[in-house]
Design goal:
The strands form 2 sheets. Strands 1, 11, 12, 13, 14, 15, 16, 17 and 18 form a 9-stranded mixed β-sheet that branches. Strands 2-3-4-5-6-8-9-10 form an 8-stranded parallel barrel, surrounded by 4 helices. Helices cover about 25% and strands about 25% of the residues. By secondary structure, the chain is an alpha/beta fold. The chain is built from 11 helices and 18 strands. It has 2 domains: about 5-20 and about 245-375, Lyase, Ornithine Decarboxylase, Chain A, domain 1 (Beta Barrel); about 40-240, Alanine racemase (TIM Barrel, Alpha-Beta Barrel), CATH 3.20.20.10. Helix 4 packs parallel to helix 5 (about 95-105).
């Protein structure tokens, strides 16, 4: 893992988001082993982080990109330049955009049967699929369980027991988040086997994302599953990692602005906020702080600089409480952070850096002109 001290030396601006490209490449290695052993194809799920230098780098290393909207499809297509696959699935397909999407995307997985019936004939040239909800839940928190009760994500498997609609060539399956073993995937394949027959006429299966491949020791279960599916069910199988590639490759550097006592505890106000990583607040997560000493004898609450009372990163332990002006580094914030970040209270977004080898290069610094333009200045 990149050391906090190294980032503090190399990164001038604060707050700053840093993407470590060597770590992204390391995260790709288990996926490349799976691809080599099974013959599957790898898509990057750009919703995790749609940074163009990242997409341009991955263009040479993956087989395509998965997208969720017209803007994502346009950006991915511009980067790919017609090379590789472009897969789309979303609950929110807009009729007025669909003709363009059909021209940009190689594969579209419709989210519901009514959505398919309304739109599939309004554009041509792409391979038609369905997102399927196998009704198997593996997440403890229903906020990120695609198979929760009354789910909006995918066609209920019970509606497909009599077969797939005419024209469907593929199925998209996504059931997990942050998973570190392949048991859920094996269970889903077993549940879907009545649909997954040679007679179904399927050309492809997209097994979705949600698996942290770099944290799974044994890859044989997924290799064997893909080999089975390619031999008996469909010509091609796709994986679409997002967080698995960029999650642990992202860092947020921030600086202590103020320090004071509140009801007997030290509060450190940072120049960042949970608005720069909204999932901290959404999912009540406590992000990893590289500067923490869990055996430290002192503790401090790290708070963001906005007026939101709940703008709190968490309570952390230190040997010595950081002082005003000290820099701190949060880790494992590469996915679903910068893409969700916003300027609440008018605070600038983090500067963006790309780390390659021993260099950290500044890509972008947010400024007042961006803020003013957002609000029609």
């Amino acid at each position: 893992m990149t050391g906090a001290d190294e980032l503090k030396r190399r990164v001038e601006h604060s707050p700053a988001f840093i993407l470590d490209m060597p770590q992204v490449h390391a995260n790709l290695q288990p996926l490349q082993r799976i691809k080599q052993a099974s013959g599957c194809r790898i898509l990057y799920s750009m919703k995790a982080l749609p940074l163009v230098p990242l997409l341009a780098d991955l263009k040479q290393r993956v087989d395509g990109i998965s997208v969720s909207s017209l803007f994502e499809a346009r950006l991915a297509n511009a980067v790919l330049g017609g090379q590789g696959s472009l897969h789309l699935t979303t609950p929110g397909l807009r009729p007025e955009e669909f003709a363009e999407l059909g021209g940009l995307c190689s594969h579209i997985s419709f989210n519901s049967l009514p959505q398919y019936r309304r739109l599939h004939e309004s554009s041509a040239g792409y391979s038609k699929g369905l997102r399927v909800n196998p009704k198997l839940s593996f997440a403890d928190d229903e906020r990120y369980d695609p198979c929760r009760k009354h789910s909006k994500l995918g066609v209920d498997i019970a509606l497909l027991q009599q077969g797939l609609p005419a024209g469907i060539e593929g199925l998209h399956i996504h059931t997990v988040f942050g998973q570190t073993d392949f048991q859920p995937l094996q269970a889903v394949i077993t549940e879907l086997k009545p649909l997954l027959t040679p007679q179904s006429g399927l050309k492809w299966l997209n097994l979705g994302g949600g698996y942290l491949y770099h944290r799974i020791a044994g890859l044989n279960p997924i290799i064997e599953a893909i080999r089975y599916l390619k031999t008996h069910i469909a010509e091609q199988v796709y994986l679409e990692p997002g967080k698995a590639l960029v999650g642990n490759a992202g860092y947020l550097l921030t600086t202590v602005l103020d320090s004071f006592d509140s009801d007997g505890k030290t509060v450190l106000v940072l120049d960042s906020s949970v608005n720069h990583h909204p999932e901290i607040f959404e999912y009540r997560r406590r992000p990893l702080l590289l500067d923490e000493d869990i055996q430290g004898g002192r503790a401090a609450i790290l708070a963001g600089s906005t007026c939101l009372a709940g703008d709190i990163f968490g309570e952390y332990r230190f040997d010595n409480i950081p002082a005003v002006g000290d820099k701190l580094v949060f880790a494992d914030v590469g996915a679903y952070s910068l893409i969700k970040a916003q300027r609440f209270n008018g605070y600038a977004l983090p500067a963006v850096y790309l780390k390659q080898n021993d260099e950290c290069g500044l890509l972008k610094q947010d400024d007042y002109a961006e803020y003013s333009r957002q609000w029609l200045g």
